[in-house]
Amino acid sequence: MSDLDFLSRAFGFGPEAPSAKDDDSGSLLAARDALLRMNSAFRILTDAMPQMVWSTLPDGFHDYYNARWYEFTGVPSGSTDGEGWNGVFHPADQDHAWGVWRHSLETGEPYEITYRLRHHSGEYRWTLGRALPLHNEQGKIVRWIGTCTDIHQAKMMAEENEVLSRELSHRIKNIFAVINGLIGMSARQSPELKPLAAELQDRIAALGRAHEFARPHSEQSRPVSIASTLRGLLTEILVAYPALGEGRLVIAGDDPEIDDRSATPIALVFHELATNSAKYGALSAEQGRVDIDIVQDGNDVKVNWTERDGPAIVGEPQETGFGTRLVQLAINQQLAGDIQRHWLPEGLRVDMRMSASRLRRAEGAPV
After folding, report:
1. Host H or E run for residue 281
2. Which SUPFAM superfamilies does the record associate with it (predicted)?
3. Which fold has domain 3-152?
4. CA distances from 41 to 7, 8, 48, 335 (A)
5. How confident is the model at residue 174 (pLDDT cuts 50, 70, 90)?
6. Are 268 and 330 in contact, with CB atoms under 8 Å apart?
7. 63-95: pLDDT as tens digits
8. What is the per-residue pLDDT across 148-165, written as a single tens digit (0 to 9) for each?
C-alpha cells in the first residue's frame, strides 16, 4: 500500500486517494501533500517509540506495523498483514486473543490483553496489547491504533515474588499451627487450663485467617471464599480479639457488598488498626471500647473507628510507622478514598471514606 493510500484510509477518505488529474484548483494537490507530510511524521514518530505500534482498518484488517514490530518478531515485512498477526501468538493464547479483539471491533470498546508473542529468537515473551479506536467527526470509527509492550521481565519478577509470598505465608501459618499445637499439649498436661486453651486456640486460628486476607495476593492466590459484605468481613477479621465477643468491639451501621477485589486492602487496614489498639490503645485496657460505624452515602462508604476508655492520649505520634503508611496506601489508592486520624484525649478516632465502586465489581465486569 502506498503512503497516500495509507493516510487516505487512516483519515476516512476512502480506499483510493485523490489523483492529480482530478485536481483543477490545486486544492487536492495541497491536501495530498499535507497527507504525505503527516504520513512521514507518523512513521518517524512510531518508529522512534520503544513499543511495537500497529494500526488496522475499521473492520480490524491490519495494514501497518512500525519498525519495532518487525525487529521484535523477525518476520518478513507485510507477512502479518490482515489476519496473519495471530500466527505469531502462542498457540494457547490465539483463541482468546481473537475473542477479545472481535469484542472490541463489535462494540468499539478499548482493546487490552496480555499474551505470549513469539520473539525473533524463537522464545515466547509476555506482551501487553492495547488499542483505541479513532473516530471521525460523525463518530464513526475510521481506524484502530494499537501498541504491544514487552512485559516479560516484569511478568517473571511478579511470578517470582508470588512464589516467595506464598512461601513466606506458608511459614507464618505453620508458626500459628505450632503455637496451637503447643497450647494443646500444655492443656493436656494441665486439664484445668483446657477451657482457656480452647479459647486461645480459636483466637490464634482467627489470626491465621486474618493473615490470609491481609497478605498481598495475586489473581491465583486470592481467597476463594470471603464474606460477601463489609460487616461480615470485619467480623471475620476481628473475631481474634476477645473484645468482640465481650461487646467492647462493636460493628454497626450499613453493610455494603464487597468481593475479593477489596477484601485484602480492607483486611489489611482493620487488622493494622486492631493490632495497634491491642498494643497501645483502647483494646489494651480491660474496659477499653472500639466502635466501628459504617454509613453508605451514594458512592461513598464512610467508616468511623472510635476508641475510648483506653490509655490517655497526649498527642499525635512524632513518627509515622510502616503500618500507617501501608494503611494510607490501601485507602487512597486501592479503595479510592481518604483517611484522617484524630488523636483525641479520650481516644483515637479514624475517619475513612472508600469508593463503593472499588468494594465490588460491577456485574459482568471481568475478574
Report:
1. none
2. PYP-like sensor domain (PAS domain)
3. Beta-Lactamase (3.30.450)
4. 11, 15, 11, 42
5. confident
6. yes
7. 889 989 999 999 998 888 887 787 899 999 999
8. 999 999 888 888 877 887
